[in-house]
Design a protein that fits this description.
Bound molecules: S-adenosylmethionine
Keywords: Cytoplasm, Methyltransferase, RNA-binding, rRNA processing, S-adenosyl-L-methionine, Transferase
Structural class: alpha/beta
InterPro entries: KsgA/Erm, rRNA_Ade_diMease-like_C, rRNA_Ade_Mease_Trfase_CS, rRNA_Ade_methylase_Trfase_N, rRNA_adenine_dimethylase, SAM-dependent_MTases_sf
Subcellular location: Cytoplasm
Enzyme class: transferase
Helix content: 25-40%
Largest sheet: 7 strands, mixed
Protein name: Ribosomal RNA small subunit methyltransferase A
């Protein structure tokens, strides 16, 4: 039997099950084996790994993962695809497919039920693009010992996640994610390798969680709000954005000035020039501000 990923087999499966793909669920299926193999290579998948996949679709990526990994646990929200996956993935005995929304999954509990805890834990997925950020945050906030996460997403989002200070793509998402991980684009993927073709190009991002997050998980949402505030008016100075967040009373201004001076930060600097550690330091310093 040829691999699921080939355009011929993908079309045959869709026809056999009379499947109309749902745009609302981000259903764009990969039909290029080289790309799939590059994804698997970017995650360095081996028999030492247990893999979480989000959105197996008709099983193209799942199949390549199962050929190399110890176990694969795949979350698929679309009930129509469950019998299809039972059929296409029948030859593999190391795959569990759960008909579940990844965002409502209690990951630590589910993983304990399905994995033995003796293998490296990795996420490998061709994400449904409409919920890329919520999925990433859900995974990162689950406090699981992931070795890496290799995920396909819209190219613009990939560029934002991995952006460096001073670039157009650098913003609050870059800073928040980079406090928890080191993020790199592994490679770009053209829109032509999907069925149906999406309106955007894609990229594979490799995230490696930091052994020590730069901001504790329980502070992440407050930190994210702070960083968003710093970027609120992108073309205005950091000083201006801080005043909008903290208030313009003389006492506040005085305290803000002291913090910026201590950190040797020019108040006229724009948020996009601050590195991730600078945001972290500033956030901690500004906790002490008395209103
Ligand atoms: N893995 C397949 C591939 O590479 O060809 C399909 C990827 S397709 C871009 C995204 C998949 O995610 C679809 O099968 C879709 O039904 C599924 N999906 C969408 N929202 C989901 C959710 N909240 N939880 C789990 N799966 C979801």
């Amino acid at each position: 039997m040829t691999d699921i990923v080939t355009p011929q087999r993908t079309k045959a499966i869709l026809q056999k099950y009379h499947l109309q793909l749902k745009k609302s669920l981000g259903q764009n299926f990969l039909t290029n084996k080289d790309i799939l193999l590059n994804i698997v290579m970017a995650a360095d998948v081996s028999a030492a790994d247990d893999i979480i996949e989000i959105g197996p679709g008709i099983g193209a990526l799942t199949e390549q993962l199962a050929k190399r990994a110890h176990q694969v646990l795949a979350f698929e929200i679309d009930q129509r695809l469950i019998p299809v996956l039972q059929d296409t993935l029948r030859p593999y005995h190391n795959i569990t497919v759960l008909n579940q929304d990844i965002l409502s999954a209690d990951l630590p509990t589910v993983l304990q039920q399905h994995f033995d805890g003796q293998h490296h834990l990795k996420v490998v997925a061709n994400l449904p693009y409409y919920i890329t950020t919520p999925i990433m945050l859900h995974l990162l906030q689950a406090e699981l010992p992931f070795t890496c996460m290799v995920m396909m997403m819209q190219k613009e989002v990939a560029q934002r996640l991995t952006a460096m200070p001073g670039t157009k793509a650098y913003g609050s998402l870059s800073v928040s994610v980079q406090t928890l991980t080191t993020a790199q684009i592994a490679f770009n993927v053209p829109r032509t390798v999907f069925l149906p073709q999406p309106n955007v190009d894609s990229a594979i991002v490799r995230l490696v969680p930091r052994s020590q997050p730069l901001v504790a998980l329980h502070e992440q949402s407050r930190f994210a709000k702070f960083v968003k505030g710093c970027f609120a008016k992108r073309r205005k100075s950091l000083w201006n954005n801080l005043l909008n967040m903290y208030g313009k009373q003389p006492l506040i201004k005085e305290q803000l000035q002291v913090v910026l001076q201590t950190r040797e930060l020019d108040p006229q600097i724009r948020a996009e020039r601050l590195t991730v550690p600078m945001f972290v330091n500033l956030y901690h310093d500004l906790q002490k501000i008395k209103k």
